[in-house]
Amino acid sequence: MSKTFKIAISTLPKKPWWGSGIPSYEDNELMKTGVIPNQQLLVSQYKNLLRSIQSESYETIQIHFPENLETNNGFDFIFMRDHFITHRNKNAVICNMNVPERKNEPKYTIEPLKELGYNVLEINDLNKTFEGGDIFYLPEENILLAGNNRNSQDGLELLSELLGIRELKIIPNFGFHIDTSLSPIFDNQHNCIGIQCAESMFSSKDIIFLKELCRTYNWGLLILSAKENRISENEFRTNLNSLTLPGLIVSNSKNHPKMLLDFLKSHNVSLIECPVTEFALSGGSIHCLTNELY
């Protein structure tokens, strides 16, 4: 059975991905600076991710990795999530990156999106920043959940206006991207039914805000800790950074807290394990590598 939307993913570059070592961005504590990914394992993990998504009857659209970015060490173009946001109304807004090293990446998705039939919108004021990894679009509710670190408020407000969003909810957290701090959970009809979050990435005040938000929309709130699974904080956040689809979560690992697994089981939400450890060396995971095409 075909799905109502597709999944965009970058092709791999021809050159070894970060073959000279992972760089360092000022605010991304998950990057393993200087580490060189295992290219053979990386290719295998990439192919497995494609197969895993396609096995759930989602069509994948591969967007060509620009040769110009390979030449200029723009290897994080692979994180397709950050470049654009699409809406069911067929508008696609190109992101304005906050990180200087990545500002040129999104423009390479403009023509592919136009070829797919989207009305592509750009914001010329580069000070109005927003990055796809710092945003979740809830299609049934027509709500944006957004972080407060790489997004500017005026950027998010303009993005919401261009997309035709009903409500914008800015959620304070400590993550460079909100997808390293929380993730929504959808039922089979794509309704948001819950939020899972990393307790360590929120202040006590922010947790209260999350509780009030979830109470307003009748969402379950799962406040989770890496200690419950006896894994590192980094691995926990890599697992949290997942592709969350109707009735399905595609995660780096099945090693999740029992509270989450029980919630998924009670709501008939499946969990697929798809390791992307080599990509995670640059701070990204499955949510970062993918992007919904509504």
- Structural class given helices, strands, pairing? alpha/beta
Count of individual beta strands: 15
Order of helices and strands: EHEHEEHEEEHEEEHEHEEHEHHE
Strand content: 15-25%
Whole-number mean pLDDT = 95
* Number of helical stretches of at least 4 residues: 9
CATH architectural group: 5-stranded Propeller
Q: Keyphrases for this structure?
A:
294 residues, alpha/beta, L-arginine/glycine Amidinotransferase, Chain A, three-stranded mixed beta sheet, 9 helices
Plain-language structure description:
There is one protein chain. The protein is of the alpha/beta class. The chain has a single domain (6-293), classed as L-arginine/glycine Amidinotransferase, Chain A (5-stranded Propeller). Helix content is 26%, strand content 21%. The protein is built from nine helices and 15 strands. It has helices at residues 39-54, 67-71, 110-115, 153-163, 204-217, 233-240, 258-266, 277-280, 286-289; strands spanning 6-10, 60-63, 84-86, 91-94, 119-121, 135-138, 143-146, 167-170, 182-186, 192-198, 220-224, 243-245, 248-251, 270-273, 290-293. Strand 9 and strand 10 form a beta hairpin. The longest helix is centred in the N-terminal third of the chain and has 16 residues, at 39-54. The radius of gyration is 18 Å and the shape is globular.
